[in-house]
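Hi R.,

Here's the chain you asked about this morning:
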Amino acid sequence: MKKLSSLLILFLLSVTFAYAQQAKYVFYFIGDGMGVNQVQGTELYLGELAGKIGISPIGFTQFPYATVATTFSATNGVTDSAASGTALATGNKTKNGAIGMEKDLTTSVNSVATWAKASGKRVGIATSVSIDHATPAAFYAHNASRKNYYQIGLDLFKSGFDFYAGSDFLDPAGKDNKSGVSENLYDMIEKNGYVLARGYKDYLKKCKKADKMILFQTQEASDIDRYSIPYALDRKKGALTLADITRSAVNFLSKDSSKGFFLMVEGGKIDWACHSNDAATAFNEVIDLDEAVKVAYEFYAQHPDETLIVITADHETGGFVLGTGSDKLNLQVLKNQKVSESGFTQILNSLRKKYNNKVSWENVQKALKENFGFWENVKLTKEQEEQLYATYQKTFQGDAVTMEKSEYSQDEPLAAEAKRIIDEIALVGWTSGGHSAGYVPVFAIGAGAEQFQGRLDNTDIPVKIAQAAGYTKE
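And here is the predicted structure, written out as tokens:
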């Protein structure tokens, strides 16, 4: 009898302990395209800026649990963001291009966000790119193609989550719509009980009276680029940031603290910078993601026994290499790059307009000095100077310009050449403009974080989050 009583007490203690450690608040950060070298490179870059050989750690790499995860999809050794987003959201491998569906492209699968909602939690989905892009969409939508943006937008309303944030909708009017529904997505916002805020200041004005919220960048910003908020390197004062988005989400989801919440935040433009093979821009995007994680960490510091923060990536992009043959790096030179490749394209376009497409080499040199430090802080070889001048002659003095294309941008050849040269001087390299099958990092802190140990597959991560938070997988 005494033995039975002892076992009962141990059982009750274990249940009590498990309950006490359950994650009431969950933050799930996904750095799109953020492989191991993107993170390591950022810390080595910061180390060089601090005057040393070695790393200056960013915040989330200091979390007590760190490991790596594999990313292959059900059909490809190298995944795309739709399949990897579905794996990270639902715990299911699928075909490249599919959102929230199994590889048969007919069977829908629910995400950890849906499990959280069914468990009574408030739910937020946020990103630095459009809200209907592959990674955020995998948490609320079900579609055989990631490109069906209008239908994905319809699924956003069907899910009924409490908070969404991103740059905008990509196809609000349904130009590419084949569903038979014709209503504009903007018109559906209020009908589905949401309040739309345009920018952080507008959010602050509207959040108190809203039951459900959608936060987009300002209309002026969307008129320029609805696909994403600006790169950190190109950001102007007043632009919406990923930290703003995260802060807004935490504020909104905490309105009913008794429920707890689940929040997914994607740093989507690490991937875009890596598709463009733009090291300086990629490092600044990783730092920008860390700034958003700091917002979550501030919340964790107030609720350490009830909060779980997990950071990972959907895949690596670019086959990024730290070192190109010699036994050294020169990452600090990248501090002289003041804009992204796309940002410099805009500068060159402005020069074309200003001078009626008759831009002198002296004007181009001035722009290169101001935005890449060439000839002043960054010394060029004779061959590098010749490369720049030859590209200038071909594109500013020659025939029609053929733009340099990457996954998400079309840039001036001179902008692409300047970026290639500064990466060359920094002694970093790229194997492609696409994804790779490299490991991605996983970092965790808080309630249930000890589950994130040993090599993982990306499908393990949402399941472990659900276990830590007590969600029932559906």
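One quick note: The two ends are 40 Å apart (CA to CA).

Cheers,
M.
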